[in-house]
Amino acid sequence: MNKDILNIIIFGAPGSGKGTQSELLIEKYNLDHISTGEVLRAEIEKQTELGKIANIHISKGHLVPDELIIDTLENVLDEKENSNGIIFDGFPRTIAQGEALEKILEERGTSVTIVLNLEVEKEELVQRLLNRGKVSGRSDDNFETISSRLNVYTEQTAPLINYYKKQGKLVNIKGAGTVEDIFEKIVHSIDNIKVC
To answer: What's the confidence (pLDDT) of residue 61?
Structure first.
């Protein structure tokens, strides 16, 4: 890894469209995708030790402890040594994870390029997640767990907005509208940074 690669953190509450926009960015910029949610769900499915611990937290709508996530992330990053860049989807979720990510990337000679914050009203988030639950059958997309996840996001993850704002890396993107419109705004923000 080196400083010229494009490392993107895509940020936003559950249901804000991070996964959808990540897929489009991967295709456009030929990036690798690290979704801590997907990594953890795979561990849960395989019933590994990490998966069992993660499942206890996730089923209650809580965040998985930082140390577990950070260890998992380091392993995944080592597998992507020759990458053009990475989209971090669902990580970091706390200031401690943000600081750990900086250190991990620095050790690999690179850093976070841009942080995209998808802003969506709470009512719309709830509706999107309930609809997703009906379509995907994901057990964590029910009203009680959704409310808990949104509260956890506000309390623990939202402080990262200021953390990255102070570093001058944060770009707020209105997450309402068509997928294409939102993607266009994101691409514009990324290309502006690449030109600078």
So the answer is: 77
Known catalytic residue at 93:
yes
Q: Extract the tokens encoding 164.
A: 């990255």
Residue 41 annotated to the active site: no
Residue with structure tokens 């996964």? 19
pLDDT tens digits, 72-96: 888 788 888 788 999 998 789 888 8
Give catalytic status of residue 149 as yes or no.
yes
Residue 154 is classified by DSSP as I
Global confidence as pTM = 0.82
The helix or strand, by DSSP H or E, that contains position 122, with its residue range, turns out to be helix 122-136
User: Annotated catalytic residue: which of 132, 165, 185, 194?
Assistant: 132
Each residue's pLDDT tens digit, 44-56: 899 988 889 888 9
- Can you tell me the distance from the alpha carbon of 47 to that of 49, in angstroms, rounded to the nearest whole number? 7
Answer for the pair 106, 3: CB distance below 8 angstroms, yes or no.
no
Indicate which residue of 28, 138, 174, 194 is catalytic.
138
**Residue 45 forms beta bridges with which residues?**
none
CB contact set of 44 (below 8 Å; sequence gap of 6+): 51, 52, 54, 55, 58
